[in-house]
Every structure is written in structure tokens, then in C-alpha cells.
Amino acid sequence: MAEINHFEYGWITPSLSYALSVLGSILGLICAGRIRTAGSAGQRAWWGLLAAWALGGTAIWAMHFVAMLGFAVDGTRIRYDVPLTVASTAIAVVAVGIGLAIVGTGRLNPVRLIAGGIFTGAGVAAMHYTGMTAMRLNGSLGYDTNRVALSVVIAVVAATVALWLAMTVRRGLAIVASALVMGVAVNGMHFTGMSALSVHRHEDQAEVSGAGMSTLLVPIVLAVIFGVVGLLYALLAAPTDDDRAAAAYLDSRRASEPAAAAPPAAPDPVGLRARSTLGQPGTPFPSRREMPPR
Hints:
Residues 254-294 are annotated as: Disordered. The chain is mostly helical. The protein has one domain. It is built from 9 helices and 7 strands. The chain has helices at residues 12-37, 41-68, 82-104, 110-133, 145-168, 172-195, 213-237, 241-256, 272-276; strands spanning 4-5, 72-73, 79-80, 135-136, 139-143, 197-201, 211-212. The chain has a 3-stranded antiparallel β-sheet with strand order 4-3-7. Strands 1-2 form a two-stranded antiparallel ribbon. A two-stranded antiparallel sheet has the order 5-6. 32% of the residues are buried.
């Protein structure tokens, strides 16, 4: 049995992972709030996609791999299978997106909330253990069944609470407080699942294939930075409720204003206006009575 260290760099990695989960939760809750006020199906799909990326991609997946920076196994190097790592990203984003679609279409009720929470929680747990399966080291992995089950329960409960908050929380202070709670739940699920892991190291010192964490760190950091910047730009560029209310007020004012009256015609005592139209197509020739006096 190999010795495992979950905090090789002390509290730096768990602190960074918690900060990432809180940041992603804040952005995800704000984007989810825009789903409720969207005026069309296309806008709802757009904000749902952004919320899924913020929650699934940043608050969950990026948090997982930042926390994995502090994971080490005595006597072996750790590398990662890139396709499985990418697949774990897709699992997290798609699971959150489907969960938001379940609770965000129609009236929110307990059945929708529980169904969305179960699906999303199972997806989050699948993301975590897919990421663990992507590890390549000189040994074999084992899991404690009870702790794995506990981590899945935590994931389902955390996902259910997150979806409920996404559909109900609107105010700034409430969003921040909810994100702090969600950060605790996401990190709690991660480290509970990690505590279920055991490694049986192989005696032979075979070469470990795959990408090192230092190789994956740069694209992960760039993806997080560009993702957060893109989310912030989308939120800042989108019209707020106040903007929409102001636009509706201006439209109602324009609709209620009377049409501008035509200016009074200038006097034409000698019939110059009538004479100027003679001979033009569609102009009837005036009768003798209509002719001006000479």
C-alpha cells in the first residue's frame, strides 16, 4: 500500500480550488438568473449554456484539477490520459446543462428539482471518478465502497441545492452567500471521494505514460481565464432589468404621443397651386367653375 498525500503543497491548492468553485458558482448563479428573465428560447439556451460552463466547467471541473495539483503518491510519478481528462470536462458541463434544463423549463416543483439534482449529482460524481480513472501511475487504484457512496450522496445533495439556488436566488448578497455554501459542498464531495482512494504500488519501476500535470496546467489555466473573461463580458454586455424597463417605458411614451399635425397650407388666392399640377399624370383637368377668375 503506497502512502498518499492529498496536500503536498499545504493549504495552497485547497484554498485555490475553493476560490475557483466560489467564483464559478457566482458566475453560474448570475447566468442562471438571466434564464428566468430571457425573452426568447434562444436567449434562454444561451444563458443556460453559460451557466453550465460556469458551474460545470469552472466551479466543478477546474476546481477538481486544481485540487489534484496537491495530490501525490509516494514512489511514483502521476500522469494523465488526455482524452479521458477532456471527457471528464464534457461530462461535468453536460450534466449541469441538462440539470438546468430540467428545472428551468416550466414551473419549478419538487419533482423537477429532485430529478435535476439526481441527474446532475450523478454527472458530477461521474466527472470526478472519470478524472481519477484518467490518472496513470505505477500502481493500481482501489476504492472504499462506503466512502464512494457517501461522495455520490454529497454530490446529489449539493447539485439539488445548487439547482434550487440557481432558480430562486437573485440578490447580490444572497448570490455570494450561496456561492460560498456551494464551494464547501463541491470541495467536500471532491475530498470525500479522494479519501476513498487507495493505491497499491507495483514493485517494478515501469515508465508511466501520459501528460504530466505541469503540461495540463497551462491549458487548464488558459481555459479558466478565457472562460471567466468571456462570462464577465457576456454579463456586462447583456441588458439588465433596468435597461429593459427603461426601453419599455420609452416605447410606451412614443406610442402614447399623438402624431404630429400637418403644417397649414399657405394661402393660394390666384390658384397657382392648382395651375402647377395641370398636365401631370393622374391630375384631372379642372372644370370651368374650378378655374380661377381672370
